[in-house]
Amino acid sequence: MAQTSAASPGKVPRTARGRETLRKLLDAAAAEFGERGFHEASISGITRRAGTALGSFYTYFDSKDAIFTALVRDMSARVATTAAAAVSEGATGLQREREALVGFLHFARDHKEIYRIIDEAEFADPQSYRDHYEGTATRIAARLADGVASGTLRDGEQDVRAWAIMGMNVFLGLRFGVWDDSRPVEEIAEVAADLLGEGLRARQG
User: Fold this and answer.
1) How far apart are CA 129 and CA 141, in angstroms?
2) Domain of life here (predicted)?
3) Rounded Cα distance, 25 and 74, in Å
């Protein structure tokens, strides 16, 4: 789980109980923003979902904007943690990308609200929106570089490749995580890995 150090400056919880309350507020914010959108969501709606007093909100956050920013960063960190945890020890190259995608697809199915939240961040919090995608691309590029170093991937323009892979993963998550979650995620990831490994060119023989 991502660290719950996303409170407004000077309001980081110092106790286990405080961290638990902060986690409840972030989870409630995910439900509130995911269901109602940024503009219709309210602080009272967040605290009602969290089962906390209104005063508890202001113990950790200065405003609705502040908790939205914290939520985007928290969800981005949780995506990174989930993808990393899904990769088996010693995995390299395409296996690593396939397993990371499996982890992301599971996360998308469990947290369908992430798509609306990240999309709205483009306008409600452009910096966090950009940080989310740039951070994700940086992690993918690092995995690709490791694959090149291990000899399991061909060298090339890792930045372009990373953004292309991320774009593919994002829309696979939308299609097979949010819109329709009936197909096994391993099956989806295997098809994607085959595309990365073999491309679209017709095979000879």
Assistant:
1) 19
2) Bacteria
3) 12
Full-model pTM: 0.92
Check whether 2 has a pLDDT greater than 60.
no
Which residue from 76, 77, 66 is spatially nearest to 3, judged by alpha carbons?
Answer: 77
Q: 16-66 has which fold?
A: Arc Repressor Mutant, subunit A (1.10.10)
User: Which CATH number applies to 71-198: 1.10.357.10, 3.40.50.300, 1.20.1250.20, 3.90.960.10?
Assistant: 1.10.357.10
CA distances from 7 to 23, 29, 45, 70, 194 (A): 10, 13, 18, 7, 42
Per-residue confidence (pLDDT) for residue 205, from 0 to 100: 60
